[in-house]
TrEMBL record:
InterPro entries: GyrI-like (IPR029442), Reg_factor_effector_dom_sf (IPR011256)
Top-level division of the source organism's lineage: Bacteria
Lineage: Bacteria, Bacillati, Bacillota, Clostridia, Eubacteriales
Full protein name: AraC-family transcriptional regulator
Pfam families for the chain: GyrI-like
Domain GyrI-like small molecule binding: start-end pairs: 1-67
Amino acid sequence: MDELIISSSTWEIFSGQGTNTSIQELEKRIITEWIPTSGYEYGNAPDIEVYFNADPVNAKCEVWIPVVKKNS
C-alpha cells in the first residue's frame, strides 16, 4: 500500500450513489455545473473518492473536490 500525503486544503464534499457511470456523471456535473457558479475555483490537490461499499451496481461514496475562494 502506498501512502500519499496531501497538504491542507478546503474541500467541497458531494455524496453519490449508484453505478460507476453515475459516479462519473456526478464528477462531471461538479466540474461543469457546480464549480463555474459556486464562487470557488478548482484547488491544487487531488480529487478524493471515498467508497462506503464496493457494490458496482449501487455504490455509496463521497467525492471530495479541493477548492479555493475566487478572488473578486
